[in-house]
């Protein structure tokens, strides 16, 4: 499979699509991004709004996304500490293609559920 613009084939580790998948492909990145599409959030709000995420995983995910320039972290010099997170312009531009992917997933929900069920049965 080659992207429409005939640039880097997907087999090349430097392919832009593979780089994006490396950024968003873990368990917690998409839920964090989803919550941040609703606006600036404090750490405690993110933890409350993402069911099942541990403090350790939330911290790791936020640090990775900050390092990848997907989100911005702002620390206020107050006691107790106040830290807020929001999407950067770069991160905001990622949301539209993710919405297209979400629409595809919703349109193919039944097939995707069968695939997941089959995988779970084979474990």
Automatic annotation (TrEMBL):
- Keyword DNA-binding in annotation: yes
Please provide, alphabetically and separated by semicolons, the GO molecular function terms listed in this UniProt record.
DNA binding
Q: What keywords tag this UniProt record? A: DNA-binding, Transcription, Transcription regulation
Domain named HTH hxlR-type: residues: 15-113
Record-linked InterPro entries: HTH_HxlR, WH-like_DNA-bd_sf, WH_DNA-bd_sf
Q: Name one Pfam family in it.
A: HxlR
Q: Supply the name of the protein.
A: Helix-turn-helix transcriptional regulator
């Amino acid at each position: 499979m080659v992207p429409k613009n005939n640039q880097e084939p997907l087999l090349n580790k430097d392919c832009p699509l593979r780089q994006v998948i490396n950024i968003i492909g873990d368990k917690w990145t998409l839920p964090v991004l989803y919550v941040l599409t609703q606006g600036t959030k404090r750490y405690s709000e993110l933890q409350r709004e993402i069911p099942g995420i541990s403090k350790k995983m939330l911290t790791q995910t936020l640090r990775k996304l900050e390092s990848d320039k997907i989100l911005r972290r702002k620390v206020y010099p107050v006691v107790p500490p106040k830290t807020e997170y929001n999407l950067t312009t770069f991160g905001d531009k990622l949301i539209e293609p993710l919405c297209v992917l979400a629409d595809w997933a919703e349109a193919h929900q039944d097939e995707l559920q069968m695939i997941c069920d089959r995988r779970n049965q084979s474990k």
